[in-house]
Amino acid sequence: MRRVNFDLDVLRSFALGVELGSFAKAADRLGRSTSAVSAQLKKLEEQAGTALLRRQGRGMVLTEPGETMLAYARRLLELNDEAAAALQGGALEGWIRLGLQEDFGEALLPDVLGRFARAHPKVRIEARIARNAELLDRVAGGRLDLALAWDAGAPTLTPHAERLGEIPMRWIGPAQGELDWSPEGDEPLPLVSLDAPCLMRTAATTALDRAGIAWRIAFTSASLAGIWAAVAAGLGVALRTGVGLPPSVRALAPGESGLPRMPLLGLHLHRAEAEPAPAIARLEAILRQRLEGLSAFA
């Protein structure tokens, strides 16, 4: 069987086009013509021996083999970029202070920090898991270099913020069994939430009030671990996103159990400096790559 050596430039065009939802936009981002990117995609399909994209309406969507190729393309590109960074930027030194929402702790932190540490062993990272208000305060005060925080719907206090994307807010229930509550019943909906003030607690109660659904706070916790334990035990439902859910809970389908449909929640990257140091910029790049792979993004 003839070995196939996929071209990384072609894989990068393919992955970027899928990410942006447009191969014309990918061509512009990569500094190539649209026809050049089209030729790359044709070459990739010839190497793969199958169609990777199919037309849907005015756009293109992945075929089943295309989804498989995309997963491998992302892995190959990550490994390539990691190798390049290790060889070209191994001399990076310094100290980076990174802040994250607790939701992203297990979903992002091990992979991001592991990749960065392998490529830049001389850079020290201090990671802090905290709530929105504390993260923004620390970035504004120069006590964090980078932070991922939810869009709180108010003007940001940080000097340099960029909206990265949106994630659907979801009602979270136990993984096993049905939710023991009905909108037709007399009992108010039991809510499980973080201690106030909490962005998603406010969003939940506001949405329920607008829908005319009575509610009560059944359990509060200072950490997400407590939230997941309470939801898994059937004490109530929580409002979060699909990021970092443990197997003991599940995101309810939109409209399930008569609960109101929730809007998208914006995610921002906050920087202390407009032009970050090289080490900070490299960590930011790895963080962005990992976020692109999160299936919870809308």
UniProtKB/TrEMBL annotation:
<keyword id="KW-0805">Transcription regulation</keyword>
<dbReference type="InterPro" id="IPR005119">
    <property type="entry name" value="LysR_subst-bd"/>
</dbReference>
<dbReference type="InterPro" id="IPR036390">
    <property type="entry name" value="WH_DNA-bd_sf"/>
</dbReference>
<feature type="domain" description="HTH lysR-type">
    <location>
        <begin position="6"/>
        <end position="63"/>
    </location>
</feature>
<dbReference type="InterPro" id="IPR036388">
    <property type="entry name" value="WH-like_DNA-bd_sf"/>
</dbReference>
<dbReference type="InterPro" id="IPR000847">
    <property type="entry name" value="LysR_HTH_N"/>
</dbReference>
<dbReference type="Pfam" id="PF03466">
    <property type="entry name" value="LysR_substrate"/>
</dbReference>
<keyword id="KW-0238">DNA-binding</keyword>
<dbReference type="Pfam" id="PF00126">
    <property type="entry name" value="HTH_1"/>
</dbReference>
<protein>
    <submittedName>
        <fullName>DNA-binding transcriptional regulator, LysR family</fullName>
    </submittedName>
</protein>
<dbReference type="GO" id="GO:0003677">
    <property type="term" value="F:DNA binding"/>
</dbReference>
<dbReference type="GO" id="GO:0003700">
    <property type="term" value="F:DNA-binding transcription factor activity"/>
</dbReference>
<comment type="similarity">
    <text>Belongs to the LysR transcriptional regulatory family.</text>
</comment>
<keyword id="KW-0804">Transcription</keyword>
<dbReference type="InterPro" id="IPR050176">
    <property type="entry name" value="LTTR"/>
</dbReference>
